[in-house]
Structure formats: structure tokens, C-alpha cells
From TrEMBL:
BP term (GO), one: maltose transport
Alphabetical list of SUPFAM superfamilies matching this protein: Periplasmic binding protein-like II (SSF53850)
GO MF term set: maltose binding
Signal peptide: 1-22
Family (UniProt): Belongs to the bacterial solute-binding protein 1 family.
Top-level taxon in the UniProt lineage: Bacteria
Keywords assigned: Signal, Transport
UniProt GO cellular component terms: ATP-binding cassette (ABC) transporter complex, substrate-binding subunit-containing
InterPro entries registered for this protein in UniProt: SBP, SBP_1_CS
Protein's name in the database: Arabinogalactan oligomer/maltooligosaccharide transport system substrate-binding protein
Length: 422
């Protein structure tokens, strides 16, 4: 008989289980088990697909009912943190990958390595499993994934005589000037947001922090070199100046989908919106390439997405039912259905069927996933982007020097990671 979810996780959270098991209230001992799932997807565009899949799961599993709750993404982390520490936490959570180690560290998530949820662990991309791990155990099953890519307008590139996507930042800079000369359209528009600056750090073989050595590296020569390159892409022929307004994201996206800029860095969460723009009425006009490489020759972008995690405070019956549900929702067939309905990226290769890959954007993003870098096993990692989102716009606009901005970031990171050296 297959082992249940690790008993020690249940015992450790016994006090929580007594009051916080989502869906256990009011159930009869011989009736179906009711589990609660907090889904954090877009309530309009994505949630209907998940709600339909819940009904499909219930039809195939008469002994399990799923209470579906859509929780706004920007509220879900705090809500779960509060609920898991008190009462009312859901049995299953759709957790952004950065939340997984943070909640695991607090003991809120059950390890899944010996459960039905992870019976097909080898089917998932290894870098995605890695960012569901904490302290040697796996606390989530990869549900949907994303990364950044260079997305470009093939027609504008062709009109300018640029025959292939740039593979280095220097190439991008040169191509942007050519595109401006030949088409009158800017060749590239960069973002000042922290997440979009990560590829420039990776391209120099560094990151904001060195987790293995517990060291803050944002002021290292490598980080400074990468961000100098990033800063240089806001000034020059065919390079759009930095937009530091609150609506910068929307401005960049709108310009790209309507053919007013030839290339941007963007993620697959915008696939559906790409196709709504006049420039991509023909879906095949959308080009997708790995982000350009830095001076090390390395190219890569951060891996994002969501895991499905199970609450450690639920009793064993609910954890068993949750594991069955998580396995269903992350199966190859289900992931293919989700990709076709929501235009999201599956986390396992066997879900990229011919039908799924008929969408040129999904097929394109699949090719860049191998270069994506998983987030380090550091609960505070995603929190580092907050200070960066404050400082990078100042640097990009010239309101602050790069050296001053990086010094400010180093201080802010030290406050978040007091055990790390500078």
C-alpha cells in the first residue's frame, strides 16, 4: 500500500489540523472527503478552465469533492500566511514559485516526495522541480511555468534586413539602430522592472545574491557590468528611453503588439494579448528567441510560474485526497488541456503535444525554457525585487548614478538578509 503523506508533517502541525483543515468541517465519516483549493489565477481568463477541470476530477473521483475558491493573486500570499498560522487554510494552494520555499520554511506545506502527487516526478523539467524544493524535500508540483524571452516582430526585422534574432546585447543594440534607420520604428524598448533586469545579471554569471556562500553580490564587478549593459539599452538610436511611469508595463506592451516597437523582453503570460494586437493578427509574425547573452556567452532568464502545494495542517485523509487532485491537475493530459485553453506553458515535456505546439508562441517559449534558471532555495529571494523596483527606474532615468543605486540596494538587501556578508 502506498505511503500517505509524511506523517511527521501531520504530527508537527496537529494543533493547526484541529482547526484549519480546509473542507473537513461538517463531513460525515462515510461521506466524500471535501478538499479546498485556493486558485490564484486570473478569475476571468484562466479560472473557468480550472473550474471545468475540477468538475472533471470530481466525476472521476466520486469520493472526493473540491471546494474551488479563486483568491486574487496579489492577496493570496498574505491570506495563506495568515490562515496557515491560525485557521482556515486551504488543503491545496496554487503558489507562485517564490512562495514555496518561504511557506515550507515556516512548516506550512507538506513534503510531497513519497506521495501520489509526485509519482511522475521524472516527467517534470528538473529546473522546475528544483525550485519546488527546500532543505532536501519537495513541497510543490510544478503546475504552470514561465520565463522571459526576446519577442520580436518578424515583419519589421525582415523589412530592416535583419535576418535572425540577436544573440548578444551588443547585437541587439546594433539591430535596433538598423531597424530604426530602415523602418522608422524603435528596435527595442526595455523595462525598468527588477524581474526584467535579471537576464543581464545572469549573462555575467552572477545574481543579486550568492546563496551558496551567503553573500550579497549586487555591487560585484559582474553585477555592475551586467547592469551597465542594461542601462545602456535606454539610450541610443532605435532604443526607446526608459519609461518610469506607473503605466510603463502597459505602454511597452501596447507599443509592441501594435507594431510601434520591434522587440521587447516579455513572458508567456502575454501570449493571448500578443495576438490581440494589430501586429500579430497573423500569429506567425511573432518571433520568440532566448534573451541575448552577456559577455560570458551565457544567456538565461529567471523561471517563474506556479506550483500546487498541500497544506501540512490538513489531516491525513485530506492530504491523501489532495495528492490525488494535484496529480490529476499536473498530469500530461490536464496540462495539455490547460495550455490549449489558457495559452500557458506546461511544466512537463509530454504535455507539449502537436496540438499544443500548433500555437507558435507556446512552441517558441518551449524552446527557450532550457536556458531558464530556477530561483535559488532562498525564501527571501523574491523580496529582493522590491528594493530593485524602487532603485532601477531612478538609475535608468539618470536621476541616480548606477554606483549610488547599487549601494542603496546593497544596504536594503542587508536588511532583508542580515546573515549575508557584503
Amino acid at each position: 500500500m502506498r505511503r500517505g503523506i509524511v506523517a511527521t508533517a501531520v504530527a508537527a502541525s496537529l494543533a493547526l489540523a484541529a482547526s484549519a483543515c480546509g473542507g473537513s468541517s461538517g463531513e460525515s465519516s462515510d461521506g466524500p472527503v471535501t478538499i479546498t483549493w485556493w486558485d490564484t489565477s486570473n478569475a476571468t481568463n484562466e479560472a473557468p478552465t480550472y473550474q471545468a477541470l475540477v468538475k472533471e476530477f470530481e466525476k472521476a473521483n466520486k469520493d472526493i469533492k473540491v471546494k474551488y475558491v479563486n483568491v486574487p493573486f496579489d492577496q493570496a500570499q498574505n491570506k495563506f500566511d495568515t490562515a496557515a498560522g491560525a485557521s482556515g487554510a486551504p488543503d491545496v494552494l496554487r503558489a507562485e514559485v517564490g512562495w514555496t520555499p518561504a511557506f515550507a520554511q515556516k512548516g506550512f506545506l507538506a513534503p510531497l516526495d513519497d506521495t501520489e502527487a509526485l509519482e511522475e516526478k521524472d516527467a517534470f523539467q528538473p529546473n522546475l522541480i528544483k525550485q519546488a524544493e527546500f532543505d532536501g524535500k519537495t513541497y510543490g508540483v510544478p503546475f504552470v511555468t514561465d520565463t522571459l524571452a526576446l519577442v520580436y516582430n518578424k515583419a519589421l526585422f525582415e523589412k530592416a534586413g535583419v535576418t535572425e534574432a540577436p544573440t548578444t546585447w551588443d547585437d541587439l543594440k546594433a539591430d535596433a539602430a538598423t531597424i530604426k534607420d530602415k523602418t522608422g520604428v524603435d528596435g527595442y524598448w526595455g523595462s525598468t522592472a527588477a524581474y526584467y533586469a535579471e537576464p543581464f545579471l545572469f549573462g555575467e554569471g552572477t545574481d543579486t545574491v550568492d546563496v551558496e556562500n551567503e553573500k550579497i553580490t549586487i555591487t560585484s564587478p559582474e553585477a555592475k557590468k551586467g547592469l551597465t549593459t542594461w542601462q545602456g539599452l535606454f539610450d541610443g538610436k532605435g532604443l526607446h528611453k526608459a519609461d518610469t511611469t506607473a503605466d510603463a508595463y502597459a505602454h511597452i506592451q501596447d507599443a509592441f503588439v501594435n507594431g510601434k516597437v520591434a522587440a521587447i523582453i516579455q513572458g508567456p503570460w502575454e501570449i493571448t494579448n500578443f495576438y490581440k494586437g494589430s501586429a500579430f493578427a497573423d500569429k506567425n509574425n511573432l518571433g520568440i528567441a532566448t534573451v541575448p547573452a552577456g559577455s560570458t556567452g551565457e544567456a538565461g532568464a529567471p523561471t517563474g510560474g506556479h506550483n500546487l502545494s498541500i497544506y501540512a495542517g490538513s489531516d491525513e485523509a485530506h492530504q491523501e485526497a489532495s495528492a490525488k487532485f494535484v496529480k490529476f491537475m499536473t498530469s500530461a493530459d490536464t496540462q495539455a488541456q490547460i495550455a490549449l485553453k489558457n495559452a500557458t506553458l506546461p511544466t512537463r515535456d509530454d504535455a507539449y503535444t502537436d496540438e499544443v505546439k500548433a500555437d507558435p508562441a507556446i512552441a517558441g517559449y518551449q524552446t527557450v525554457l532550457p536556458a531558464a534558471q530556477p530561483r535559488p532555495e532562498l525564501p527571501e529571494y523574491s523580496s529582493l525585487w522590491g528594493p530593485m523596483d524602487q532603485e532601477l527606474p531612478k538609475i535608468a532615468s539618470g536621476a541616480e548614478t548606477l554606483d549610488d543605486g547599487l549601494a542603496t540596494l546593497e544596504t536594503a538587501f542587508a536588511d532583508l538578509l542580515p546573515e549575508y556578508s557584503k
